Amino acid sequence: MWTLDELCALLRTTPATIYTWRKHGYGPRAYKIGRHLLFADADVRAWLESRVAGPERGNDGATAGTTGSGW
């Protein structure tokens, strides 16, 4: 389990950002134990994996959404 401070260090963000993400349903799943938020390693890793940046690939291997400048 990750503490809030450990998660913030990993993501290079602040507790306020994590709280905002939770308020809006974004961010990894958290468990409230007493007054503390804890984050399961598997949940953090799955959340991070779902946020991988880059082009999405279709079944044929072609890059989806290739129109535009790429920005």
Could you characterize the architecture of this molecule?
Helix content is 37%, strand content 13%. With 71 residues, it is an alpha+beta fold. The chain has a domain of 48 residues. The model has no long low-confidence stretch (mean pLDDT 83). The protein has three helices and three strands. The chain starts with a strand and ends in a 22-residue tail after the last helix. It has a three-stranded antiparallel sheet with strand order 1-3-2.
Could you give a quick summary of the protein structure above?
With 71 residues, this protein is an alpha+beta fold. The protein is built from three helices and three strands, in the order E-H-H-E-E-H.
Topology:
Layout: E1 2-3, H1 4-11, H2 15-23, E2 31-33, E3 36-39, H3 41-49
Antiparallel strand pairs: 1-3, 2-3
Major sheet summary line: 3 strands, antiparallel
N-to-C span: 37 Å
Shape: globular
Assess the beta-strand content as a share of residues: 5-15%
Query: What class do helices, strands and sheet pairing give?
Result: alpha+beta
Keywords:
single chain; 3-stranded antiparallel β-sheet; 3 strands; 37% helix; 13% strand
